[in-house]
Design goal:
five-stranded antiparallel beta sheet; 11 strands; 36% helix; globular
């Protein structure tokens, strides 16, 4: 069973994260020391609590696609944690960080959906968007949609001049894009729906309590807009989104190269 991560681009977690998750695992009968597996077979190897962090959604997807993880192996992604409950299986105890605590709210199997970027990104991003209370109520999944999602952080400056991290989420099907984000200059979350063809904004709503509700608002508008259109396959959407991202990366590289060339010409002119 997989117990090492040398083939995956993952990071070590902090000491607090490891200790707090190990402590939280004592509340789970399958994961605690002397848990159910060890009661049935007291000679079973005492597997260690071993946690790593995925830096982005692609790394997390690769981790789950790897499969056959040992019990008590875990992976963190942003404010989420997933701990393997079945030795060599695919049953991940799912937790969300709430301040200095962890909220356990679900058990997920990722073997199948990790092969489908649309389904996988929707599931993980939904958990990121949801508040701890929405997770506790098991009301953490955004409305069904044909978008591929990504997320991250940006920085804003408060009135005292301090940098504050703000969350953003973006869903894309190659033709339309939804942006959900927070800014210190706006209360709550803002949701926007764009047409990528003519770069027009189709709707915008501000002051929404949380990211999940903001996403659901924009998704409802997206569904209404795209309903008359022919439904495209997941693979078509994935190809379109990835091609769009590749074009953006090439444009950025080209602009960087042009800037470097101008700098060299200016040096020669001197």
């Amino acid at each position: 069973m997989a117990r090492y991560h040398y083939r995956l681009d993952l990071e070590q977690v902090s000491q607090w994260e490891k200790e707090s998750l190990t402590e939280k695992c004592q509340e789970n009968g399958w994961l605690r020391r002397g848990g159910y597996d060890w009661q049935d077979d007291p000679w079973l190897e005492d597997y260690p609590y071993d946690f790593v962090r995925a830096k982005n959604l692609d790394d997390l997807r690769s981790f789950f696609s790897h499969g056959n993880w040992a019990i008590r192996q875990g992976v963190l992604f942003r404010d989420l944690a997933f701990v393997q409950q079945v030795n060599g299986g695919d049953e991940w105890w799912t937790l969300k960080r709430d301040g200095e605590n962890w909220v356990a709210f679900e058990s997920w199997s990722f073997g199948d959906i990790s092969e489908d970027l649309m389904r996988f990104s929707r599931a993980i991003t939904s958990m990121e968007m949801a508040t701890p209370e929405q997770c506790r109520r098991l009301e953490y999944m955004m409305k069904d949609n044909n978008l591929i999602w990504e997320s991250g952080y940006t920085h804003d400056v408060n009135w005292a001049g301090d940098e504050v991290r703000c969350r953003w989420f973006s869903g894309d099907d190659g033709l339309f894009r939804i942006d959900v984000y927070e800014r210190l200059s706006y209360p709550g979350y803002t949701a926007e729906l764009f047409s990528k063809e003519d770069r027009s904004m189709l709707c915008r709503e501000t002051d929404i309590d949380n990211a999940l509700d903001a996403a659901d608002f924009a998704i409802a508008k997206y569904i209404k807009t795209t309903l008359p259109m022919k439904i495209r396959s997941t693979k078509e959407i994935e190809r379109s989104v990835l091609a769009s991202r590749a074009d953006a990366a090439r444009d950025a590289a080209r602009a960087m190269g042009e800037e470097r060339s101008r700098g060299e010409m200016q040096k020669q002119a001197r």
